């Protein structure tokens, strides 16, 4: 039982959730001693929580929609690529303040093996900052300075797996059966073969199969992603208790948003695809309860790369919520599709599908991040629109590779699979929009078009339900980092094309009128100004609108009597949008837009 010495705040919070937590935990484990271990870990985390963070908890409890404000504006980056270390990043906060950021997502920075760490997603120690980036003290100091600047820090919490060099994995390799039970380990291929017969492969080209032979153990171990990432066995309650304890430890270092990585994968069950199983939601709900008891200032952001019909479940219900928000992966992909072919029909259908989700569903919208663009489009919808899904996907990844006639893009393929014809795409926003190619060929008209495309994409993304997140460097039109090919530790992963060091020399030009950097910098300022409007309130009504022109996307936002219309021309030619009004939404009859123009109209 939890000690009576814990003050009433924690006790009252736990009391509100105790019966549900008991039911959820026992439904998975039927282990009351392990449940008491979890409650003791929660109590200890609350006792250790700094007073300033407890004060923030009370503020956020009184303002639970803080992350839904129209003024939310985010950025994601790698600590080392942007500044070198956490301590140096703290000295760069004025640059972030210039952009009025309220949200900063730092790529994984917990202790990891080098060089094989999948960009930090192979974690050796969930409680310790990687020494190459700093210390736990540096992280706590950074979060404190960010809070003073009005910026909430988001960190990845990699729930599905550990590095094969994690302490648990090392003990498992040494033959300790207790720690072998922290993973999925098998003496022969009987169960792995049954699993592989149904479960899809994540990286069939670069990491085929779902199991890796471990010579030290003389066992097969489940590795859904890469061989050096061992999947955790959440059927073992000790794994859950340890991982939730680590999440609370990060919260006590001042992390305000936990991005839970690959969450649909965390529960495995033979005879299923081991994706989106009910037990996943039980675990996420328990994590949410732990946060609400110990550190209610902290919110959960899920990485769920699934169809819209699968997404609502990860938000839970208003009575039993899970994630506070999710990445808007599907709309990101459809934005790039619309830009390549000038056809917004798929994009509109995708936005409609997301807008139809319950009101508690909230999204982080973005164009580029640390990862590739996976062309997971809505195939049934493509067929309905007369689009061949396979040929369309093939067109898109070749277009953004720059190998299709008329393409302006300079990107690269990622994980091309000749057998299936599947591939993903890499590159920065500016390079994919044509800015790099125009600079390379000294083509000024093409450069103007590239800038227009870049700004169109950002404005359309920022107009969606949810809040926008930039990829660091987008605000200064940072180009691809082709030098990764000269690094033997990075050359095998083409995602490093858009994981290059921040160009501070280029950033210095951001305030010089007429420069490329200034054009993008001012464009991002326009995004923030656009969103400082009542129509971006958390409860605003948002919907697409028919333009009678498949090249032009229209989105209407309404709050009270205020109506805001966003028109986005994804075509390289002038286009006219024809708009019908309804009661309460009076729109202009028609608007003609220039190529790649975004127009915002107060109606």
TrEMBL record:
SUPFAM superfamilies: (Trans)glycosidases (SSF51445). Pfam families: Alpha-amylase. It is an enzyme of class 2 (transferase). InterPro entries: Amylosucrase, GH, GH13_cat_dom, O16G_dom_2. Its EC number is 2.4.1.4. The keyword Transferase applies. One of its GO terms (biological process) is carbohydrate metabolic process. GO terms for molecular function: amylosucrase activity. Residues 76-528 form the Glycosyl hydrolase family 13 catalytic domain. Keywords: Glycosyltransferase, Transferase. The keyword Transferase applies. This is Putative Amylosucrase.
């Amino acid at each position: 039982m939890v000690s009576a010495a814990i003050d009433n705040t924690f006790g009252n919070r736990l009391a509100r959730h105790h019966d549900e937590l008991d039911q959820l935990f026992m439904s998975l484990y039927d282990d009351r001693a392990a449940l008491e271990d979890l409650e003791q870990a929660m109590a200890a985390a609350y006792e250790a929580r700094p007073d300033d963070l407890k004060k923030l908890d009370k503020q956020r409890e009184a303002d639970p929609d803080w992350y839904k404000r129209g003024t939310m504006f985010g950025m994601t980056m790698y600590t080392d690529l942007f500044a070198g270390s956490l301590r140096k990043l703290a000295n760069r906060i004025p640059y972030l303040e210039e952009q009025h950021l309220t949200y900063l997502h730092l790529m994984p920075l917990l202790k990891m093996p080098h060089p094989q760490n999948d960009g930090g997603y192979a974690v050796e120690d969930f409680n310790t900052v990687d020494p190459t980036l700093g210390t736990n003290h540096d992280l706590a100091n950074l979060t404190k300075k960010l809070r003073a600047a009005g910026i909430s820090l988001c960190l990845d919490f990699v729930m599905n797996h550990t590095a094969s060099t994690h302490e648990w994995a090392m003990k498992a390799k040494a033959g300790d059966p207790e720690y072998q039970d922290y993973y999925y380990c098998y003496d022969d291929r009987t169960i792995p073969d049954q699993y592989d017969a149904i479960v899809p492969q994540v990286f069939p080209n670069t990491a085929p199969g779902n199991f890796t032979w471990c010579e030290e153990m003389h066992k097969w171990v489940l590795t859904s992603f890469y061989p050096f990432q061992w999947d955790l066995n959440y059927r073992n309650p000790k794994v859950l208790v340890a991982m939730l304890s680590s999440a609370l430890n990060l919260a006590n270092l001042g992390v305000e948003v936990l991005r839970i990585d690959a969450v649909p994968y965390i529960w495995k069950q033979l005879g299923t695809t081991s994706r989106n199983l009910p037990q996943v939601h039980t675990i996420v709900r328990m994590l949410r309860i732990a946060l609400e008891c110990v550190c209610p200032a902290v919110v959960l952001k899920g990485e769920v790369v699934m169809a819209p019909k699968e997404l609502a479940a990860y938000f839970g219900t208003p009575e039993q919520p899970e994630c506070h928000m999710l990445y808007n992966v599907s709309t990101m992909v459809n934005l790039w599709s619309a830009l390549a072919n000038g056809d917004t029909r798929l994009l509109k259908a995708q936005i409609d599908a997301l807008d139809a989700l319950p009101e508690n569903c909230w999204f982080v919208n973005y164009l580029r991040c640390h990862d590739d663009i996976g062309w997971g489009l809505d195939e049934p919808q493509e067929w309905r629109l007369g689009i061949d899904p396979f040929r369309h996907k093939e067109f898109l990844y070749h277009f953004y590779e720059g190998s299709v006639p008329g393409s302006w893009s300079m990107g690269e393929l990622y994980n091309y699979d000749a057998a299936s014809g599947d591939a993903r795409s890499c590159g920065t926003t500016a390079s994919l929009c044509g800015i790099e190619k125009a600079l390379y060929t000294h083509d000024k008209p093409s450069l103007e078009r590239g800038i227009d495309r870049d700004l169109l994409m950002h404005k359309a993304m920022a107009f969606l339900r949810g809040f926008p997140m930039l990829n660091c460097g987008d605000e200064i039109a940072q180009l691809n980092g082709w030098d990764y090919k000269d690094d033997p530790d990075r050359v095998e992963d083409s995602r490093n094309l858009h994981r290059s060091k921040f160009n501070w020399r280029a950033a210095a030009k951001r305030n010089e009128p007429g420069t490329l950097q200034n054009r993008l910098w001012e464009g991002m300022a326009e995004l923030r100004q656009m969103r400082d409007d009542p129509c971006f309130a958390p409860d605003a009504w948002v919907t697409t609108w028919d333009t009678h022109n498949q090249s032009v996307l229209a989105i209407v936002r309404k709050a009270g009597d205020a109506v805001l219309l966003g028109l986005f021309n994804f075509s390289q030619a002038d286009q006219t949008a024809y708009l019908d009004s309804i009661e309460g939404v009076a729109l202009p009859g028609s608007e003609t837009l220039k190529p790649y123009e975004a127009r915002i109209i107060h109606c």
